[in-house]
């Protein structure tokens, strides 16, 4: 057990280090996130000026929502991506069949890789926009110091849920000739249903309720709400529980999908 | 007629290396250093040297991709850097490790694009295509997507693409790298035909056999300077290059004694004998076969790096 | 003149090849095209959702913003369609692919802009055109010759200004290969900015995109004239007609930047 944990930690650390070699590109990306946040925050401010308190957020919370969601965007891979790009090249080269037979668990390997990546990107592409937003553009930092660890935990769970969805999409590559199209479509769905573009409370009633129950809500909307301290005490645990629930369900589905994929490779030779 | 002329051409690169955490040190590297040579129309020249000697930098300057830092350079009557586009119509280039063909499309489509980009007249295109198809045996490959071609087939496809517009000069960078014996032979045969038909060929290679079979002239470049210019025999003499006779005896024994050869290595029943490259192997083989229980033998050609290394040792040692 | 014609012809030849190569994967092409269309529509859906809660944003009604949205989308969409992939320059330099392009008897800019050309990138101009037509219909404007002229001016000069931004900013990658992300904030960020009314944004930002990066001339200034709205910056009216001059200047500057970059690449090899 301890050995396994050590192994996955090593894999994650390797991915973290690999991504940290693209330092300038990551930093430029963080600047881009900040520019987008400035633009989008202005549009939100205009909306909240017309409708104060819309969706249960005050104007300052709405602006903060934009900055936090931009800080999460790349880390939680709201568009898709992350390990998917690497997996894609392995599908193209045909190495994927070999990967299934490695002694390391296929799903665990890629989860560890993705967590390492997300860790580095949260640091830079998350940290820079948050700092810029808080220092110059009126984003509101949490009042309670306890919120920070809860937010980090929520962001971690967001990455795991996002991984669960992306893993299932990538697995479709075992059956589809080319999974790129499906990946693009799920990326669109993810951007919209995660609350990346607009808080889900602003959706028309029915659609909003559905969107809040789907796994994508756990990717952006929930960590943002944790950061904004929308709920207190045990209710926060409810939010985290929702994320954990979807994380487990999706991981389980990934497991089943992986078994089917392996069987297919065994029967048809890839 | 001089087709390629270099007059004291130099090319320096500025390299930044890390010095400490933040500071970076800049220093200049001379990739090509006062290089002068000429190539006449119709020649086939081997351009060789160790990795990093300045071969690709020279080729890039000759194609107009890179501008020389100093010196004068003319190819087919134009200054490559100034008139890159005009020059591109008069030269053909093949990089052994990088294809210019369109990966997902049939070979024919790449040729069709070349026809239009190089503005080749229909009649000339038809004739050239026919010639390439015949000599390179491309008939079955024309309608195959390039990604499905083997390395050797793709190299033949690339050679065809480089020659459709009747270039005056053909630059080849490692044209036989990674190919199997049969493909190598085919490529060499084709290049011989192309050169015989009047196209000037300049090729870089690590394979001395390419030079032996194709080039009447060899130029060796090292540290950006021309260190040898002459024929292959001259190169072997200058480099005191040696061939190696690998002998497998029936059982391990003491080092073989044969006139004109010396044992350089013994491993079990196998022994390596070195002898001067220009000397025939026949008398040595005869001598060995006569006196030792011979199972098998083979002759190995000299390796470029060794030849050049010894040439240096010779030059330094007097 | 012959040179310019050859630049266009050679671009067309190479672009046609990329298009053929892309259609080699037919299934994926349809899905990806659908996804592109959805991606482009996302931010308009956000606008619709915003107007679900309010009938004015920054004092502008939805059809008025639709006019901005349509013209901004066409401007960046057409520019991206024709030469958007020039932003991959740094990558091409790193892999050595640029050298191969320089071997062709055609202008380097034509070859770089034609790289990875795909019809899929028509999605944005198509979707923007649809929104523009709807907005023009819903606005019920009293057309006069100067308004027609202004609209035509936006449709021509907008793409030129964005095209100049793509090429000019990409030229930076000749010197600094990792500038791509930063450039995105000006191009794609700029297009997002122009979808919203100028009244939404802070004065400093407006000054920056008028006199710094000349985005305001793409559609803001002409639209103010068409709709008879006051300029938040209070610039002279003549500025609203200045787009052709600005576009010509931007294109000239971009051309010079590209030349300088290419010359530096060929003479420093960095």
Automatic annotation (TrEMBL), chain A:
The keyword Transcription does not apply. Keywords: Membrane, Transmembrane, Transmembrane helix. The chain crosses the membrane at residues 27-50, 62-82, 118-138, 150-176, 182-202, 234-254. PANTHER family: INTEGRAL MEMBRANE PROTEIN, SLR1174 PROTEIN-RELATED. This is ABC transporter permease. It holds the Pfam family ABC2_membrane_6. It comes from Streptomyces tateyamensis. The keyword Metal-binding does not apply.
From TrEMBL, chain B:
It is a peripheral membrane protein. GO terms for biological process: response to antibiotic. It comes from the Bacteria. Pfam families: ABC_tran (PF00005). PROSITE patterns: ABC_TRANSPORTER_2. The keyword Transport applies. InterPro entries: AAA+_ATPase (IPR003593), ABC_transporter-like_ATP-bd (IPR003439), ABC_transporter_ATP-binding (IPR050763), P-loop_NTPase (IPR027417). One of its GO terms (molecular function) is ATP hydrolysis activity. One of its GO terms (cellular component) is plasma membrane. It is found in: Cell membrane. Keywords: Antibiotic resistance, ATP-binding, Nucleotide-binding, Transport. Its main location: membrane. SMART domains: AAA. The keyword Metal-binding does not apply. Residues 4-248 form the ABC transporter domain. PANTHER family: ABC TRANSPORTER ATP-BINDING PROTEIN, ABC-TRANSPORT PROTEIN, ATP-BINDING COMPONENT. This is Methionine ABC transporter ATP-binding protein. It comes from Streptomyces tateyamensis.
């Amino acid at each position: 057990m301890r050995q396994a944990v050590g192994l996955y930690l090593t894999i994650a650390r390797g991915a973290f280090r690999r991504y940290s070699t693209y330092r300038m590109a990551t930093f430029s990306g963080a600047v881009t996130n900040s520019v987008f946040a400035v633009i989008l925050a202005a549009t939100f401010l205009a909306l909240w000026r017309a409708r104060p308190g819309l969706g249960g957020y005050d104007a300052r919370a709405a602006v903060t929502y934009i900055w936090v969601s931009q800080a999460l965007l790349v880390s939680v891979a709201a568009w898709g991506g992350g390990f998917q790009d690497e997996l894609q090249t392995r599908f193209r080269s045909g190495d994927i069949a070999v990967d299934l037979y490695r002694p390391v668990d296929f799903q665990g390997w890629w989860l560890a890789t993705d967590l390492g990546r997300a860790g580095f990107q949260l640091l830079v592409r998350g940290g820079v926009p948050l700092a810029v937003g808080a220092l110059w553009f009126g984003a509101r930092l949490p009042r309670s110091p306890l919120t920070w660890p809860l937010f980090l935990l929520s962001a971690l769970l967001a990455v795991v849920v996002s991984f669960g969805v992306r893993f299932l999409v990538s697995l479709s590559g075992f059956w589809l000739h080319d999974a790129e199209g499906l990946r693009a479509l799920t990326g669109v769905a993810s951007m919209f249903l995660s609350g990346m573009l607009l808080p889900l409370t602003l959706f028309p009633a029915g659609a909003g309720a559905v969107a809040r129950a789907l796994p994508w809500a756990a990717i952006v909307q929930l960590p943002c709400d944790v950061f904004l301290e929308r709920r207190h005490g045990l209710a926060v645990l409810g939010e985290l529980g929702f994320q954990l629930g979807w994380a487990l369900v999706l991981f389980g589905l990934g497991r089943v999908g992986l078994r089917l994929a392996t069987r297919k490779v065994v029967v048809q030779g890839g | 007629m001089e087709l390629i002329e270099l007059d004291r051409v130099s090319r320096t690169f500025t390299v930044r290396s890390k010095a400490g955490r933040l500071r970076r040190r800049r220093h200049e590297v001379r990739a090509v250093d006062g290089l002068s040579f000429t190539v006449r129309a119709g020649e086939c020249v081997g351009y060789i040297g160790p990795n990093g000697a300045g071969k690709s930098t020279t080729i890039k300057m000759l194609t107009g991709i890179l501008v020389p830092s100093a010196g004068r350079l003319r190819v087919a009557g134009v200054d490559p850097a100034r008139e890159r586009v005009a020059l591109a119509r008069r030269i053909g280039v093949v990089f052994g490790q990088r294809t210019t063909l369109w990966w997902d499309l049939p070979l024919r489509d790449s040729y069709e694009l070349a026809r239009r980009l190089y503005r080749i007249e229909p009649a000339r295109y038809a004739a050239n295509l026919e010639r390439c198809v015949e000599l390179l045996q491309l008939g079955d490959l024309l309608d195959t997507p390039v990604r499905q071609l083997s390395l050797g087939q793709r190299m033949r496809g690339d050679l065809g693409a480089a020659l459709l517009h009747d270039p005056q000069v053909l630059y080849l960078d490692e044209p036989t790298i990674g190919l199997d014996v049969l493909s190598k032979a085919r490529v060499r045969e084709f290049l011989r035909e192309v050169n015989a038909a009047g196209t000037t060929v300049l090729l870089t290679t690590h394979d001395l056999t390419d030079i032996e079979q194709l080039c009447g002239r060899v130029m060796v470049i090292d540290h950006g300077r021309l260190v040898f210019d002459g024929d292959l025999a001259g190169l072997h003499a200058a480099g005191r290059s040696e061939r190696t006779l690998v002998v497998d005896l029936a059982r391990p024994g003491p080092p073989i004694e044969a006139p004109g050869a010396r044992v350089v290595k013994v491993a079990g029943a196998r022994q390596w004998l070195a002898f001067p490259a220009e000397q025939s192997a026949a008398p040595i083989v005869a001598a060995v076969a006569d006196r030792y229980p011979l199972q098998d033998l083979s002759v190995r050609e000299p390796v470029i790096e060794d030849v050049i290394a010894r040439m240096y040792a010779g030059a330094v040692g007097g | 003149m012959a040179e310019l014609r050859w630049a266009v012809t050679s671009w067309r030849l190479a672009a046609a090849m990329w298009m053929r190569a892309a259609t080699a994967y037919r299934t994926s092409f349809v899905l990806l095209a659908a996804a592109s269309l959805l991606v482009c529509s996302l931010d308009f859906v956000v606008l619709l959702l915003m107007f679900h809660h309010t009938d004015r944003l920054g004092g502008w009604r939805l059809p008025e913003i639709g006019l901005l949205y349509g013209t901004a989308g066409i401007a960046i969409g057409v520019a991206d369609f024709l030469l958007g992939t020039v932003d991959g320059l740094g990558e091409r330099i790193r892999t050595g692919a640029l050298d191969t392009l320089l071997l062709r008897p055609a202008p380097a800019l034509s070859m770089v802009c034609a790289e990875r050309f795909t019809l899929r990138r028509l999605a944005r101009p198509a979707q923007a055109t649809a929104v523009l037509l709807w907005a023009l219909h819903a606005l019920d404007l009293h057309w006069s010759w100067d308004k027609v002229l202004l609209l035509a001016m936006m449709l021509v000069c907008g793409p030129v200004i964005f095209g100049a931004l793509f090429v000019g900013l990409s030229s930076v990658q000749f010197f600094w290969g990792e500038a791509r992300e930063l450039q995105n904030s000006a191009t794609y960020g700029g297009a997002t900015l122009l979808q919203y009314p100028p009244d939404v944004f802070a004065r400093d930002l407006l000054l920056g995109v008028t006199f710094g990066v000349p985005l305001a001339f793409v559609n803001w200034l002409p639209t103010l004239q068409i709709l008879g709205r006051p300029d938040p910056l209070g610039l002279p009216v003549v500025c609203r007609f200045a787009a052709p001059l600005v576009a010509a200047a931007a294109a000239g500057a971009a051309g010079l930047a590209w030349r300088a970059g290419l010359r530096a690449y060929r003479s420093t090899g960095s």
